[in-house]
Design brief:
By secondary structure, the protein is mainly beta. Helices cover 0% and strands 52% of the residues. It has no helices and eleven strands. The strands form two sheets. Strands 2, 4, 5, 6, 9, 10 and 11 form a seven-stranded mixed beta sheet that branches. A four-stranded antiparallel beta sheet has the order 1-3-8-7, with no helix packed on it.
């Protein structure tokens, strides 16, 4: 069984920072890429960032480039997302996801490419 558990969400003012974490357990050996997505009320779930399990490659949505940084700690099976210079439009539930090795050639910015999902953590940014 694979389990992804997010933590670190909260409420901050615009310009502030947060650090989200995703702890992975279970058959993590099958993972090729891990990613972060976010979903605001009434909106679709959108890609934020992704990183290969080896940590060799990272990908970002244009809206977060230069402000968010994704990273991995393989020793702890955790992935993190550092959110800086937060804006009210960053308010959403942030979800951690994992894409298996067999799907490694799929588009990493598409929700349907991912096999496993966490329960989400809320980020609220006030102006």
């Amino acid at each position: 069984q694979v389990q992804l558990v997010e933590s670190g969400g909260g409420s901050v003012q615009a310009g502030g920072s947060l650090r989200l974490s995703c702890a992975a357990s279970g058959r993590t050996v099958s993972f090729h890429t891990m990613g972060w997505f976010r979903q605001a009320p009434g909106n679709e779930r959108n890609f934020v960032a992704a990183i290969t399990w080896s940590g060799s490659s990272a990908y970002y949505a244009d809206s977060v480039k230069g402000r968010f940084t994704i990273s991995k700690d393989n020793a702890k099976n955790t992935m993190s997302l550092q959110l800086n210079s937060l804006k009210p439009e960053d308010t959403a539930v942030y979800f951690c996801a994992a894409l298996s090795f067999s799907r490694r050639y799929l588009n990493k910015s598409v929700t349907g490419s991912y096999d496993y999902w966490g329960q989400g953590t809320q980020v609220a940014v006030s102006s």
